[in-house]
Amino acid sequence: MDNCVYLLLGAFLLAGSGSDAFTSTFFNRSNRAGYYRPRSTEINFNLLAKKTPLQTGYTYRTLYFDQKVDHFGFAQDQTFKNRSLAASAPIWQFTGITPCNAFYDVTTATWARASETCVANANKGYSTLEQIGADAAGLKFISSTFRLCDALTSMADVETFKGFLSDMYVDFAMVDYPYPASFLADLPAWPIKEACKPLLAPLSGKALLEALSQVTNLYFNYTGAAKCVNWKGDGGTPALGYLGWDYQSCTEMVMPMCSNGTGMFYKMDWDFQVYSDNCFKQFGVRPRKDWIKDYYWGTDLSSASNIIF
Ligand SMILES: *[C@@H]1O[C@H](CO)[C@@H](O)[C@H](O)[C@H]1NC(C)=O
Ligand SMILES: *[C@@H]1O[C@H](CO)[C@@H](O)[C@H](O)[C@H]1NC(C)=O
Ligand SMILES: *[C@@H]1O[C@H](CO)[C@@H](O)[C@H](O)[C@H]1NC(C)=O
Ligand SMILES: *[C@@H]1O[C@H](CO)[C@@H](O)[C@H](O)[C@H]1NC(C)=O
To answer: So where does this one cross the membrane (predicted)?
Structure first.
């Protein structure tokens, strides 16, 4: 593996996961026995490991620096035809390596840098949704305030909508670039600072939900073209196809995540058995919690090369 991009496969799989070919091949239960192990290994690693010609003219850009990456080998991705350089790879976000609260804590910290009050308002938003969504008039208020494509009709819908908001807060943090960009959504520079503008004073009740609807409006309607907000399905990142990510994390890349319910997120426990059962329900597969750590030596990166951070 002297000329490969080590394990940077999170975004790699996401890049291709929206396609029909991907869906029919990798989510096809009738292929299950055949595809689960060999194929997922092949796609993630063997292809990446092949020696490929070096590329020129690519630049790797982060918040802090631009770096030419001409010296990196790019994966020849035969399934999706195009070459790919994967990034955004949380290579230590695995069982026993990183505490399950780390991801949401970092996300909350990103928002807190803009405003602690903004974080407190977002947190209060969850219980406010539950309170106001407890009757039909409240559900109607929420649906029209947030301009939802499908109205909320039950407490179960309120739960799903809470998850939708929490995913959106994560997406904001992932694309909190100092310049306008359109990676996951069209957004201005420093989108979190922008999102917090209506949330800088402590709010409650309907006023709080109205302010939060300005946040969804920023994320989903910065161009002004959105007719309504689609809280079902892929949420904030339809182009990436969450389904691919979900499948990957239901097989080889189990990433424990939890929140104690204090920051931008409501309380979420990490329970591997529950997670595994949900994977089985959705894809007919069960995750292998420690496989990736055992196979790739966990935090021991001494023999890896070409890692970009
Ligand atoms: C699933 O795989 C079977 C067997 O290879 C194939 O006949 C079927 O068309 C596939 N289904 C989809 C939805 O691609
Ligand atoms: C490969 O990249 C080209 C150029 O960006 C694009 O037009 C094409 O759709 C891509 N193919 C796939 C299979 O993603
Ligand atoms: C999106 O913005 C436009 C222009 O401000 C507005 O007319 C429209 O109602 C907005 N859509 C949603 C879903 O909020
Ligand atoms: C919740 O988690 C945050 C971040 O790790 C921590 O600062 C805080 O003390 C915790 N609060 C409680 C009540 O556990």
So the answer is: none
Nearest to 109 by CA among 65, 150, 169, 55: 169
Q: How far apart are CA 69 and CA 83, in angstroms?
A: 14
Give one word for 297, left, alpha or beta, with left for phi > 0 and alpha for psi -120 to 50.
left
Identify which ligand lies nearest to the alpha carbon of 25.
1
Contacts of 286 (CB under 8 A, 6+ apart): 250, 276, 279, 280
**Structure tokens of 167?**
């995913």
Scanning the structure block, which residue is given the tokens 């080590």? 6
User: pLDDT tens across 169-225, in order?
Assistant: 999 998 899 889 888 889 999 999 999 999 999 999 999 999 999 999 999 999 999
The domains located in the chain, with CATH, are 4-92+292-308 (no CATH), 102-240 (1.20.120.980)
Looking at the whole model, is its pTM more than 0.85?
no
What's the 191 CA to ligand 3 centre distance in angstroms? 18
Helix axes 102-114, 155-174, angle to 10 degrees: 70
Measured CA to CA, the distance from residue 126 to residue 101 in angstroms comes to: 19
Take residue 175 and report the two structure tokens written for it. 């694309």
> Distance, CA 109 to ligand 3 centroid (Å)?
30
3-class secondary-structure state, position 39 = helix
Decide: 88 in ligand 4 pocket, CB within 6 A.
Answer: no
pLDDT tens per residue, range 30-41:
433 323 333 333
